[in-house]
């Protein structure tokens, strides 16, 4: 009993530390989904629609897969939107060409957002080494997006190696998060609605324009959550809803703890410090739309 009582707080502390580290690594990866530089590179391959660009750059590591695979791996996108662009994108450009174009776009994006001095700094090289060390403990089982990206070569330049490692850590956590959502019996749209209700998720207008859902479908998902006692009449999370979202994040932390345990407390602290520096600079440079997050 004593052993169990003393070990639980330690695990919880490590989980929160890993989540905090992820929260400053992920945005620097995610910035390329909103980057005009990546759009320009994909346009050069003949892929111009915003959704097609998104599906191409994130799914290319999986190979020339069909809409079912992309929908399953992405989880919260409407199948019909995916099918409107996949597999046609692979008839326009090969996954290999898309991956090369993505990396060129990421290179330009990071240089623009962070500046040449920070890109070439010792801190960037240090962060790349720490992030790559964390990825050594990631696991491929039941993690398709992580496993696919883990097969890609690590770029030589430190800022691209850091971005690559951030991508691996993001997809590793994301694949585990889907397992947690399934365990909570939240489908893709219900996951979006409940996350948005926390105030930390994507605004509905962005969900509609990027995920393919509409207001009627959003309202139907909200009704399903109300029937479970997770949302109230105003669309706010109930006490049970807050608890469910908290449990989902805690389970995600548990499934994602290996890379951060491998990195160790000092490594996590330093990587979080460096990641905070980089993402702060990127946010100041306008990496994301100002109205991306929120409840309404």
From TrEMBL:
Pfam families assigned: HTH_67 (PF21863)
Highest taxon above the source species: Bacteria
InterPro entries, per the entry: HTH_67
Protein name listed in UniProt: SalK
Lineage summary: Bacteria, Bacillati, Actinomycetota, Actinomycetes, Kitasatosporales
